[in-house]
Amino acid sequence: MKFVANKDDLLNGIRIVERATVVKGLQPVLANVLIETVGENQIKLTATDFDLSITTIINATIETEGKYTLPAKKLGEILARLNDELIKFELKDSTITITGKKSKFDIIGISANEFPQVEENISEADCMEIETQPFTKAIRQVVSAAAGYETNNLLSGIVCQVNKNILEMAATDGNRLARVREVVKNTSTDSENPFEMLISSKVLAELSKISTLTESDIIKICKEQKKIVITIDKTKIITRLMQGQFPKYNQLIPQTFPKEAVLDKNSLISALERVAVMVNEKNSIVKFEFADNTLKLSGYSPDAGNSEDELDAKYTNEPLAIAFNYKFILEFLKIVEADEIKIQLNSPLSATVFAPCSDEDYIYLVMPVQLRN
Amino acid sequence: MKFVANKDDLLNGIRIVERATVVKGLQPVLANVLIETVGENQIKLTATDFDLSITTIINATIETEGKYTLPAKKLGEILARLNDELIKFELKDSTITITGKKSKFDIIGISANEFPQVEENISEADCMEIETQPFTKAIRQVVSAAAGYETNNLLSGIVCQVNKNILEMAATDGNRLARVREVVKNTSTDSENPFEMLISSKVLAELSKISTLTESDIIKICKEQKKIVITIDKTKIITRLMQGQFPKYNQLIPQTFPKEAVLDKNSLISALERVAVMVNEKNSIVKFEFADNTLKLSGYSPDAGNSEDELDAKYTNEPLAIAFNYKFILEFLKIVEADEIKIQLNSPLSATVFAPCSDEDYIYLVMPVQLRN
Fold this sequence. Notes:
2 copies of one chain form a homodimer.
Chain A (H helix, E strand, L loop, with lengths): L1 E5 H11 L14 E7 L3 E7 L3 E13 L2 E5 H10 L4 E7 L2 E5 L3 E6 L18 E5 H11 L14 E7 L2 E7 L3 E8 L11 E6 H11 L6 E6 L3 E6 L2 E6 L18 E6 H11 L9 E7 L2 E8 L3 E8 L7 E6 H10 L4 E6 L6 E5 L5 E5 L7
Antiparallel strand pairs in A: 1-4, 1-6, 2-3, 2-5, 3-4, 4-16, 6-7, 7-8, 9-14, 10-11, 10-13, 11-12, 12-24, 14-15, 15-16, 17-22, 18-19, 18-21, 19-20, 22-23, 23-24
């Protein structure tokens, strides 16, 4: 194998695929990226952790065909430090020699035969195209509500539906639920059958980051019964479709609320962060007391003491005291793009909805915590 | 105890003294800062780890005298998050209540009786005053060459001498030696007796950081036989003088060198960082080969491969190959303020001097490593 490629393209490619490498696994080859020539003008980079595989294509001038694997981390470090525009790769025995103008590296790799087969082909029978920007924005808005990633936990997935020109995404870990709806153009689903899928939140979070490294306005998603391939520009993300029945989350969202408070988002963030200095680190509980156009927040830490803060709120209903894990609330507040947010309340033990005042289509439902006193 | 103080002053004071707290020690009170009223208009903050003590004075309006200790970290977190200009402190039972306009914290503390006695008074018989800027610059230039801090290791100290208007500072860990000389004004040592001291590099590094939080151009240093008190603005740093005979380092520095190379500093940093991707992590050896106006750097890692880089150098002596722990060289290069540096060489096993071309008074001597092949 021998080729010349642009350094920035190569580095960008490594940054994209290395998200699927396994750094300290049992199989050293999974820490590597597979580099293979494709025809006369391209090379393909591939990384996989079996669950998630990523491939990307880079332009190159191929002199001799071939394929080989190199440690992704070392290769990224080297490329990041090179000032040259063009880099030559040449395989000899078990090392690839990387040469710039005045720099030269011999990197020990592993044979491509040891690299797992990654099957990126998929039937084009069930595909859709969607705009990158609203799709990745929706991911960012719901991803924090998903449960921590575990292979067999459906709640670690994000459910995603495209019906005509409406995208709906949702995630829940049982304590909170985020749901977003966006109007999208350019979806190619037919109007009869909505496109539905349940994918690992980890994979979608990676997609959201990868999209910032690519230049495509459109994401193409194709699915078979167990497999999904997401194509963005020259990058393909291959993963399995999660199987099972996701909770019917729309039924969990109350339609009406007897009480509502409107608050300045940044004031609420500051006050929450102050009060949170003194909370029980085991449960992160902050008490919210709404009354007469004010919100009083308070925290209590058995070892350190307690805290209290008051801020203005538009609230004219009867007083209500309710408690939450403040981390859930802060995660929402730090993602939501709005100056004012509304909190829709019912009773101290009822599901409470946090939402931007400016956007009807994004809601963040949080279950309160029971207060002892 | 009851007082009102400016929030920024308090936070700055905590930032200064918390450097002497012991966060996870056997004595919980050492994680705390002692707060005590001084007369009608001041409070004093004190922290100590026994080896190093720091006190600082802050203006305040005292309503009731008293003293108490509070956890430095929690107190700093709270103050950093408050937007108020003035803060009220009030001691009741075992808690101090801190109140801003709309915020209130009850912090559980520990009685001042449990806090160790810090004796900041010292005889004024042996003192000097020195400008802050050249003194702290000299600390930064030598501190990385000191050995890691251990109570009984003289080489973890920095030796400091002021003779008339010349400040000389040096540190060595046995593998390298940094020495700096600066012309200073305003020293108040008498011309007969130079002022000499050996202080822990850790304490001087803290002093250098604390100086950025104070507004004084002058540092006053007083010493007794075993103790030293450094005063900068309203802050006092109290520590012990290290006892023993520091190596006669000036004798270790060769007076003449048969070979010399001149290099662009930033090019050398980039090339070293590239080559260092492939070094044996146990010894960090990079080989330097000087010949005919070039410097070739090379690294070798038994597992990962090897690296090579070439850069322009002004070098017209006969070729020389020599190897160093590249981390020592990078530490010097990242501190030194110069566009060009010179490397003064003798043989592959002789002490080598790195110095800025622009400054005769700062040298960084490094012992080479023996090359196997």
